[in-house]
Amino acid sequence: xxxxxxxxxxxxxxxxxxxxxxxxxxSVTGLCELSFVERNKLYNFSLASPLPRFPYGVxxxxxxxxxxxxxxxxxxxxxxxxxxxxxxxxxxxxLDCGGPSRCGMECSALVAKNAxxxxxxxxxxxxxSTNVSxxxxxNPYKGVIVRMSSSxxxxxxxxxxxxxCDSTGVQGPNSMxxxxxxxxxxxLRHPSGCATIISFHEKxxxxxxxxxxxxxxLFGAYLLAGTVYRFFFxxxxxxxxxxxxxxxxxxxxxxxxxxxxxxxKFSGPSAGHRSSYSRVNF
Length: 282
What we know:
Elements: H1 2-31, E1 33-37, E2 41-46, E3 65-69, E4 72-76, E5 109-115, E6 118-125, E7 131-134, E8 143-152, E9 155-165, E10 176-178, E11 183-190, E12 196-199, H2 206-232, H3 245-267, H4 271-275
InterPro entries: Autophagy-rel_prot_27 (IPR018939)
Main location: membrane
Membrane topology: Single-pass membrane protein
């Protein structure tokens, strides 16, 4: 009995793994994207998209970025939670970010200060509170700001990471700045901070192209979500996995019938149709 159930159990584990990966990729992508139209140009920032030399985009391959200034240490990960395979934080207090045994594993930004020889940590960012905006609205080429925040224990904390467009490579973060009681900032130069720009040469069609792009993206997301749901949750296989397949298969015939009815409506009865009747004399 154990041998018979083993393939089924492995299949369930594989399906759960694929769903976990998909949910993780979708969450990261949504957090790390910013698109807007300015002066007949579409600016698109996709910070988590892979680049030739950076397969994880702006995300640190180590699982975290680290900055040390005086007696303070800053750990953070952009648009995702931190992972520590080496050099984890050693904190006295880390209750809202994984606890002492898994410190840093349940937040996206953490700062530690030395107090009497002990590292006291404060969570300053969570993945769910990540926001992306441009550094300079008058100069979108410059880059974006990723801001994370955290609220708890009567204080509001935040971390703002300025990602400056630099196509030559990665520089930093080398320093951090304290802007308020519990607000910090740092700077990172990275190719992911450079926008993908689409120019609209015809001013009259700029809004139309943007609208069509949004419609196509929504349609693709609908097909992908429907296909995944039918495949993994409903167990549908083959071409039937496509949602509303009957409608899409009949779409060509529906379109032809629609245009044919329009032609008949505006052109009137055809000559062949009239000649099929003979005049009757009474």
